[in-house]
Write a structure and sequence with these properties.
28% of the residues lie in helices and 22% in strands. It is an alpha/beta fold. The termini are far apart. The structure holds oxalic acid and manganese (II) ion.
């Protein structure tokens, strides 16, 4: 399929190491995709769902010890340890190659090695990056066909160039003690061994489009971010695009596919989905920032997806979707907790065991049928609100960048930062409360700068400096805002209704960027002044509204102390701009 010598040489080396029985090149054709599905069904790696209910849909179950990204086994392998920084695991490249080679050696005997040429971003776009993933998993191939531009056109696009990411993945024995997810940014290489779980093995996604891409973005002068991208169309037909970063379990996919409530719909507001997870952002010749979603699919969390939280996601996954680790019924249907409809009378749980509603463990806790991190993989073009601009090679222009987290106290519903530098500080100190979806103490606050803590491929202090420097070059910077949908009242209930109603805060944000909405200055930023955020039709008491926008000086003093502690780990490398912002923050409170 190619005469690219660098590529052929690299494949030959991987072949010698892993010793597959045969090599199959993925051409991106429908026929080959069907053949691979059939092969997966015949070996039991995949199951076919009821085709009348779920046309084109497939089921897959991963090993029970392999159901989430393994951050503790994920490494940045740079020559110098300081280049990985204090928030990443680091391994010297030579050690990393040696250790992983032991696990890869001979691991594909009796198996096929698939060669997947793929592009993150539409081929030919100035944003795009080409990768080749070698894998022994049909499941990975089928997911990559949904999640990326892939097939023989990408090889043609690559030609004889050696400018491609070398991704090697092998399931090996899926023993967690012999699992490694290794990134070699200096070699443009990723090695992933011992896992079959999406985030560890779909190498275009977190490994390339965030960890390696953030490294390249630093070198080349752009941004690779863990952000959704969406467009909001107003009654005059003007569309403003925003990019938003939230840590996991804060509803990025739901926000990207939001359906406005009747009060807004009837006026002519609508939302356009561009991406739900990753944004590559460049400075355009017009002085604005332009953002592109480098993926072609959604890899979303199933539990909690229902017709209230996200009707568009339900419509997106009706066909041609891969379901992983949800509950499977005997008649080829799928189900998950907090989904649609009643649970089936019985089924096979994500871990392969028989399941029925009401099942509890020895301590009386309900046993879920679907793994809390069970997933759907679906093509973005099936989303009813997909933007016609989603694969525009130029991207879309950004009016605003939003940071957010899950905070039951502290952060108001929405506020605008004072400047790019203050916005970067706000992103750098972003935090969220730990939920059942993560390991750790429930409710404890975890700092997750720009939602990039697990995904920044270099020293995070340098990443902050890069954001600050980048801002200086933008003639027309987008506004930077912070939102918090999760504030609670004294009784522990969410104050804000969330979901579609979030359009109200987004609309205020867009109006602010156009100079059309009023705001009140507080020490943390601008909050909407009374009456400026449209609350028509919401059942919110005056007290609730006051609580939503409250800025409590005591809580913020404690927060600032915690920012300081968090920053200490970066030592001298922390950029001066963030130190200055910290100081300015304290002074604003002292004066207020
Ligand atoms: C994801 C994640 O899967 O952030 O998108 O973990
Ligand atoms: Mn993500």
């Amino acid at each position: 399929m190619t005469s690219n010598r660098t590529l052929l040489q690299w494949i030959a080396e991987a072949q010698e190491l892993c010793q597959p029985d045969r090599i199959v090149w993925i051409d991106g054709s429908r026929e080959q995709q069907r053949q691979l599905e059939e092969e997966g069904f015949s070996t039991g790696e995949l199951s076919r769902l009821d085709q009348s209910k779920w046309p084109g849909c497939i089921y897959h179950r991963t090993a029970v010890n392999d159901v989430a990204r393994t951050e503790d086994l994920t490494y940045i392998c740079t020559s110098k340890k300081e280049d990985a920084g204090p928030t990443n695991n680091w391994m010297a490249p030579a050690d990393a190659y040696r250790r992983a080679s032991e696990y890869f050696r001979g691991s594909m005997k009796g198996r096929t090695m698939y060669v997947i040429p793929f592009s993150m971003g539409p081929p030919g776009s100035p944003f795009s990056k080409i990768g080749i993933e070698l894998t022994d998993s049909i499941y990975v191939v089928l997911n990559m066909l949904i999640m990326t531009h892939s097939g023989k056109e990408i090889l043609e696009e690559l030609g004889d160039s050696d400018d491609f990411t070398r991704g090697l993945h092998g399931k090996a024995d899926r023993d967690p003690s012999r699992r490694l997810i290794l990134h070699f940014p200096e070699d443009n290489t990723i090695w992933s061994v011992g896992s079959g779980y999406g985030g560890n093995v779909l190498l275009g996604k977190k490994c390339l489009a965030l960890r390696l891409a953030s490294w390249f973005a630093h070198k080349e002068g752009w941004l690779a971010e863990h952000m959704l991208i969406m467009g909001i169309e107003d009654p005059r037909g003007r569309i403003d695009y925003i990019a938003a970063a939230f840590p996991s379990a804060c509803g990025k996919t739901n926000l990207a596919m939001l359906i406005p409530p009747e009060h807004f719909r009837s006026q002519g507001y609508r939302v356009w989905t561009v991406g739900d997870d990753i944004a590559w952002i460049r400075l355009g010749e017009d002085g604005r920032l332009w953002a592109l979603n480098p993926e072609t699919g959604f890899f979303g969390v199933a539990p909690g997806t229902n017709s209230r939280s996200n009707p568009n996601a339900l419509a997106t996954i009706r066909r041609n979707t891969i379901f992983t680790n949800v509950l499977l019924t005997e008649d080829g249907d799928v189900w998950w907790e907090d989904g649609e409809g009643e649970p089936p009378a019985s089924g096979i749980a994500w871990d392969g065991r028989p399941w029925r509603p009401g099942l509890t463990d020895a301590s009386g806790k309900p046993i879920p049928g679907a793994n809390p991190n069970s997933r759907f993989t679906a093509p973005v073009v099936q989303c009813p609100t997909i933007s016609p601009e989603w694969d525009n090679p130029r991207g879309v222009p950004l009016s605003a960048i939003i940071f957010g987290g899950r905070r039951s106290r502290l952060a108001p519903l929405v506020y605008e930062t004072f400047s790019w530098q203050h916005g970067v500080y706000t992103g750098a100190t972003m935090a969220s409360e730990i939920t059942a979806a993560q390991y750790g103490d429930q409710g404890a606050v975890r700092r997750d700068p720009m939602a990039m803590l697990p995904f920044c491929g270099y020293n995070m202090a340098d990443y902050f400096a890069h954001w600050l420097d980048f801002g200086k070059k933008i003639a027309k910077p987008p506004g930077i805002f912070h939102v918090n949908w999760f504030k609670k009242d004294e009784a522990g209930r969410f104050i804000w209704p969330g979901f579609g109603e979030n359009i109200r805060a987004l609309n205020w944000i867009i109006q602010r960027t156009r100079g059309e909405a009023g705001a009140k200055r507080t020490p943390i930023g601008f909050v909407p002044s009374t009456g400026e955020l449209d609350l028509t039709g919401l059942d919110l008491s005056e007290k609730a509204v006051a609580e939503l926008f409250a800025v409590d000086p005591q809580d913020w003093q404690e927060e600032l102390d915690d920012h300081k502690r968090f920053f200490e780990q970066f030592g001298e490398r922390l950029p001066q701009g963030l130190r200055d912002e910290h100081q300015a923050f304290r002074e604003r409170f002292a004066r207020s």
